[in-house]
Each structure stands twice: as C-alpha cells, then as structure tokens.
UniProtKB/TrEMBL annotation:
Keywords: Disulfide bond, Repeat, Signal. Residues 1-21 form the signal peptide. CDD domains: CUB. This is CUB domain-containing protein. The keyword Ribonucleoprotein does not apply. Coiled coil: none annotated. InterPro entries: CUB_dom (IPR000859), Sperma_CUB_dom_sf (IPR035914). It comes from Biomphalaria glabrata. Residues 23-140, 141-211 form the CUB domain.
Amino acid sequence: MKSYAAVRFLLIFMFPKPSDSLCASGKDVETLTSWRGKISSPGLLEGGYPNNQLCRWNIILPSALKIILTIENTDLQEPVNGSCSDYLQISTGNSTLVFTCGSRKTPQFVSTLETSVNVSFHSDENDEDNKGFRLTYTGICDGNISNSIVLFTPGYPNKPTWNMICLWFIEADQRIVMLQLEGLNKEIPACDQSPLELSNNTQQSRLCSSEEVLLHGQVKLKMTINNTIKRWIGKIHLTFRPPMSKF
C-alpha cells in the first residue's frame, strides 16, 4: 500500500488534476490550450445531460507532436436503426476519429499527430435517462525527427506548470543540423542550468545557445522541466543541411 501511495503522489505531483471543461452556453466553440485537460458533457455531475445541446471544443496545442485523448466512459442515447441522435464526435480537419453513441464503460484511446482536435457533443429534443461522457486529453512532446522542424516548449506560449521530460530522437544520418534557440538565452543565467541536453552513445552536452553541429546516426535531444531547472518559454528551430553545404 505504501508503494501505491508513493506512486499516486508522484503522478499527482507531476501531472496535476485538470479541471473539467463543460459546455458553456452562449459560446459557439470553446478553445482549450492547456497541455492537459478534461471535457465533460453538461449535467454529468447532476446525473444527466439536458436536451437540445450542441457543445463544441477546439483543443489547440501547437507545441505538441501528438495529442492523446482518453474517452473514460460514455452513457448516451442508444442508436435507433443504426442512427445516433445523441452523439460524441472527435475530428481533425476533415477526418473523423470517433463518432459514437450508446453506452461504453471501458476506456477508448484516440491519438493524432495533428496539433488541433475538434470535439463535439449533440443531444436531441427527446428526454432520455443518460448521464453523458467524460474524456481527458494530453499533449505529447516525444517523437522521432528526420526533417527540419520547429519544436516548442510544452504549453507554449505559456510556461509549463508541471514536471516532465521531452525526448526527441534526431535521425541525423551524417547531416549538419542547425539548432537555433529562441528565447532560451534570456531565461537561463548559466549554461549548466539549461534544460536542453544533446547526447549520443559516446558523449553529451548542454545546449545554452544556438549551435551548428555535424551529427551522425541517431542523436537524442532531451528537455527536462522540473523545480531545479528554471522554466522557460521558447522555440527550437531545427534545420537539416547536407554536410558540404555552405552557410
């Protein structure tokens, strides 16, 4: 029991419990930019959702390489002749990731490489004794990189308020990589306090200024966010160039 309590405390410390985002009347679309959050149907805590609801949320996380959503449970009106009158829909652009109704007690996981996700909830005019739904979402900063890209600090343009580690694996393949840091120099007083670390199988170094380096094979770029390293807001412009190109 002690080990479970310790793990639970660590998870709460690293990933604070987000507040629910409910359907707000008078708002066409609610924009969510927090790195982590929860979305619930209206009336969930009161025992059921009202009729004639159209709730829409837009999750926008420009600093995430992936967004993961977990539909914890759904209790919506059952489909009639295969058609859903009350439904939950999750989409990105013109692509629908989830369109569901009825009841489901087991969690459903959805992931996308897009940085924006649309969530919609609709209920019709019929009275039904259904509770609704709740889902959680989180941005993921880990990933493999083989092309030029701009990386953001988690939660950009806001400072992250939780502890986490981002790991990016750069597939260099004997190419020159330009690492241009935007905003870091103003935030970090000394190089040994930089949250950025570049390493391979044989060596590692802190990044505290823009650098141009020749990398071989796979190189790990690590960003550590905790209470001992000053939190900062910024971008990492990562550009690949052929080894013989001139600058």
